[in-house]
């Protein structure tokens, strides 16, 4: 074999190998156009379409830091033992909370389909650790992670809502005021599984009917239903530009007692708004088991009141006040100034006072567990909403 023949054979082999490799080459598909998130402004700011669906989603929440001190009776501050001497003394009550919220909305042939969820995670003092033990001293009141709280998780189609919510006995007429400690005199049970229907009659008239499971205990009264018979709540409201008038009535199936609240809200000026709320409840079978309070009547005695208002000094600062009382001569006072440092960040210092009308009466003393007749406390809150 001469050199010429060798070179021609090598060239032919290289061409054959190159052709085989070319036949095995992978064809890369053209990239598909990216599907960008689209804004959904049907339900308000912050919503966007979940890619590939007609469902609009909004994600939000807040981070909150509370630091408080004073008497435990107004649930500002905590009691603990000195780690060296064991002496009972006051200490800071602190809590950091992260709350995650989601909202969804979608239009259907049966109306708007909505959901709402709210999850709360807390780290701070465990105030339940601060109780009198067998030696007559207080516990360590240790700080740590607290129980995970799924606070809301409901589905709503048109006017029908099912799932975990706060009782219509509270949400329909509105919470007591724009203060942090608005339950110095309590005005109702809160979390409950429910089947609820909201009706809008137009011209500012709305109504609600809610079948509820209840939850918790109230001075010994069991809030959760003990049979197939639900708690029942009904309400009616009239809303106009000047404010609103609302009323709500609840039937507790456990103790067969009835409680109700009426409320008046007035927008006096653009800067000043006032409210007043009055509650009344029967005892039903509460007296049969030696109890005074229930899920829908957690205040002392038959009647209770709450009143207050908000005055806006500017777009950044407002003053909030609430006074409350009940038949057992429990009286609460809360006042704060809420200041928005920058959009989304609010600092709120508050002062609270609680008078225990039946101090020393273990059966009927104020539900907050005040360890003195007159309690003072203060709290400062930092909250970043997003």
Automatic annotation (TrEMBL):
<keyword id="KW-0812">Transmembrane</keyword>
<keyword id="KW-0626">Porin</keyword>
<dbReference type="Pfam" id="PF02530">
    <property type="entry name" value="Porin_2"/>
</dbReference>
<keyword id="KW-0998">Cell outer membrane</keyword>
<feature type="signal peptide">
    <location>
        <begin position="1"/>
        <end position="22"/>
    </location>
</feature>
<keyword id="KW-0406">Ion transport</keyword>
<keyword id="KW-1134">Transmembrane beta strand</keyword>
<protein>
    <recommendedName>
        <fullName>Porin</fullName>
    </recommendedName>
</protein>
<keyword id="KW-0732">Signal</keyword>
<keyword id="KW-0472">Membrane</keyword>
<comment type="function">
    <text>Forms passive diffusion pores that allow small molecular weight hydrophilic materials across the outer membrane.</text>
</comment>
<keyword id="KW-0813">Transport</keyword>
<comment type="similarity">
    <text>Belongs to the alphaproteobacteria porin family.</text>
</comment>
<dbReference type="InterPro" id="IPR003684">
    <property type="entry name" value="Porin_alphabac"/>
</dbReference>
């Amino acid at each position: 074999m001469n050199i010429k023949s060798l070179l021609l054979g090598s060239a032919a082999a290289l061409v054959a190998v190159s052709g085989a490799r070319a036949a095995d080459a992978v064809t890369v598909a053209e990239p598909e156009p990216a599907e960008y998130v689209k804004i959904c402004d049907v339900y308000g700011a912050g919503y966007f379409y979940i890619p590939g669906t007609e469902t609009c989603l909004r994600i939000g929440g807040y981070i909150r830091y509370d630091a408080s001190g004073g008497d435990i009776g107004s649930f500002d501050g905590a009691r603990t033992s000195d780690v060296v001497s064991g002496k009972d003394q006051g200490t800071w009550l602190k809590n950091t909370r992260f709350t995650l919220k989601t909202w969804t909305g979608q239009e259907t042939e049966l109306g708007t389909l909505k959901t709402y969820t709210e999850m709360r995670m807390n780290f701070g003092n465990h105030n339940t650790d601060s109780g009198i033990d067998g030696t007559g001293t207080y516990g360590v009141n240790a700080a740590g992670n607290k129980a995970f709280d799924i606070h809301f998780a409901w589905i709503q189609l048109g006017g029908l809502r099912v799932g975990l919510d706060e009782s219509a006995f509270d949400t329909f007429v509105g919470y007591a005021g724009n203060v942090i400690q608005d339950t110095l005199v309590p005005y109702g049970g809160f979390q409950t599984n429910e089947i609820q229907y909201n009706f809008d009659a137009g011209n500012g008239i709305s109504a609600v009917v809610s079948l509820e499971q209840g939850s918790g205990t109230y001075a010994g009264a069991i809030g959760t239903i003990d049979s197939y018979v639900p708690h029942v709540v009904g309400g009616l409201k009239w809303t106009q530009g000047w404010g609103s008038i609302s009323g709500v009535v609840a039937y507790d199936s456990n103790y067969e007692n009835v409680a109700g609240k009426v409320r008046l809200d007035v927008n006096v000026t653009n800067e000043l708004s006032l409210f007043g709320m009055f509650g009344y409840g029967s005892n039903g079978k509460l007296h049969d088991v030696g109890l005074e309070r229930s899920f829908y009547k957690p205040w002392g005695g038959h009647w209770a009141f709450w009143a207050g208002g908000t005055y806006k000094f500017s777009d950044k600062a407002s003053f909030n006040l609430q006074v409350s009382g009940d038949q057992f001569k429990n009286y609460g006072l809360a006042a704060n100034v809420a200041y928005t440092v920058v959009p989304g960040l609010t600092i709120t210092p508050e002062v609270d006072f609680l008078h225990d009308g039946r101090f020393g009466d273990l059966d009927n003393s104020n539900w907050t567990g005040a360890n003195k007749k007159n309690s003072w406390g203060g709290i400062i809150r930092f909250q970043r909403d997003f």
